[in-house]
Amino acid sequence: xxxxxxxxxxDTKTNARRGLLHTNYGTYETPMFMPVGTQATVKTLSKEEIxxxxxxxILSNTYHLWLRPGEDIINKAGGLHKxxxxxxxxxxxxxxxxxxxxxxxxxKDITEEGVHFKSHIDGSNLFLTPEKSIQIQNKLDSDIAxxxxxxxxxPASYEYAKKSTERTLRWAKRxxxxxxxxRQSLFGIVQGGEYEDLRxxxxxETVKIGFDGYAIGGTSVGEDKETMYKMIDxxxxxxxxxxxxxxxxxxxxxxxxxxxxxxxxxxxCVLPTRIARHGNAFTRFGKINxxxxxxxxxxxxxxxxxxxxTCKSYTKAYIRHLIVANESLGQRLLSxxxxxxxxxxxxxxxxxxxxxxxxxxxEKFMKDYLHENNK
Amino acid sequence: xxxxxxxxxxDTKTNARRGLLHTNYGTYETPMFMPVGTQATVKTLSKEEIxxxxxxxILSNTYHLWLRPGEDIINKAGGLHKxxxxxxxxxxxxxxxxxxxxxxxxxKDITEEGVHFKSHIDGSNLFLTPEKSIQIQNKLDSDIAxxxxxxxxxPASYEYAKKSTERTLRWAKRxxxxxxxxRQSLFGIVQGGEYEDLRxxxxxETVKIGFDGYAIGGTSVGEDKETMYKMIDxxxxxxxxxxxxxxxxxxxxxxxxxxxxxxxxxxxCVLPTRIARHGNAFTRFGKINxxxxxxxxxxxxxxxxxxxxTCKSYTKAYIRHLIVANESLGQRLLSxxxxxxxxxxxxxxxxxxxxxxxxxxxEKFMKDYLHENNK
Lengths: 375, 375
Hints:
homodimer, 3-stranded antiparallel beta sheet, 15 strands
């Protein structure tokens, strides 16, 4: 089935909204944070652990799976769910974000037909087109596929942004034309850079093509926060209320709050697992680095009131020891906590929407969270 | 409490025996395989996973914990169990095995007083004595501490083996003299190299000192299989029936069977987790390397009838993908299977002892296991 968004409640003072996302694998509440499983595994976690965190949809990366193990092997396994043995909804990205970062000569390698680039594994020459991206995703058989787009860098000239945005629209049409999977949904992606009229154009035209949901792309690419929030506003102004809205690649806690206030339903980011690898943990009072010597004899959990497995079972001193000794259980425990932290944040935001006090929630959260960071 | 060994059944045709080991954390069946958690963590596994494997005692390494995080921090945490949050029995080794591998100049650095060597972490000069080893282990508060010994290399001259064995006996006395932990047991270690009279001497004199259990050390150090099995025989001839016998560092499936046949109750080895890191899995038909291209599209479990989490949940193709893509979940899944394989082996051996057919079991096992290895 195609995913369906059900609007439950709109905030009275902001664009924030609560809803439900109906999927092939059950119904999940929004706003939601989606953990990222780049290579068909959320780094260090088992499928049971992913579920225990309260995850709804999880993400996987088309570019990575295309190269390794290859979409045909996953298709032969019976699709990505069977390959990973994961019985929850999975969204695959379109590969664009990875591919554009591997392009050597922008002017020459990005063509109307598609994108030329070199494999990050063996340097071989590869070519990805909108059709190919969709065909790979059809074979992966995720629950939600993403339209192939160019993630416009920041800053970009108006001319470049316009040219790229219009090409992404043509790519979206081409992708949709070859899309062929009954049980899979297809989301369009709004680009347009920092420019209000281009974001409007992109949103309006993408909606005209018609998708099961809409993503906002091209944020978190180096722009300042105010610019990022404007990009979100511009896009959402022209998006329909009856479809889910997904802000791609955003996982900073403050950005999640700002996104929800602007009407975003879905977020994803590698941040919680990536910072875990460097010994960092989210806490209500800002990020901490567990390698800091002050945690050597700290026999309290990462966060006193956290309900995650890590906080219920282990102390900072033990996790510090694991990270310092380069034991992978350390990464796993921090990943569990960090993902749960962001999912808990979205749970809190849902309650705040119900209680019409999301702006107060934001103010309190930022006071605590940024305070410690500035110490 | 001190551990107690309860003999349940002796095999009629071999020295194999079934028993129970009563510990501070419950009673466990022997023969048993003990997973190794070098740095207060069985690599990649959570405490729940360790239990699920059917583990009895687990191991941790005194040398590693002494250096990192330090025995005082673990003591302040309330001991190793609280530090790791593990409520099962833990055995700590004496540090000797690691320390002797770090000695630069054997003649100069191994003294009657103790051993001079350099830290593997920062190269600093360290000195470990029998008293210090015991004091560290007392502080770690494991359930079973090991006496400080020299693991004699192979080959070693009769003169060296004699000198070393006698010194290990003096070290055993010195360690026992300072031992001070009511709830901890202390095991002695039989050395003697390959020499029958020295193994006898070592066993007899170690038993005279009096310990809660006896380990056989200095095997698996490069000797051929027949020599190793003789070393075990020589030691066990002089060990009492009412105490547990522990063959240190042995985890090859065939060696476990041979050890059990000779009367060994406890085994430990890093093998199952170490080979997992290189993509290897134990199977009844020999070790396999999952990176082999033939598993790319193999959608069957590592072993058809294995009851482990990995085999119940994932295919060879998926595990291969994880290992090739360097995803730590791959190591974890192989570690789970490999440890469970050895624990299942000891479970089978207990049944074989009950049924007086351990020699038939061995013959059948070796036929299957070595056959594939020789392919």
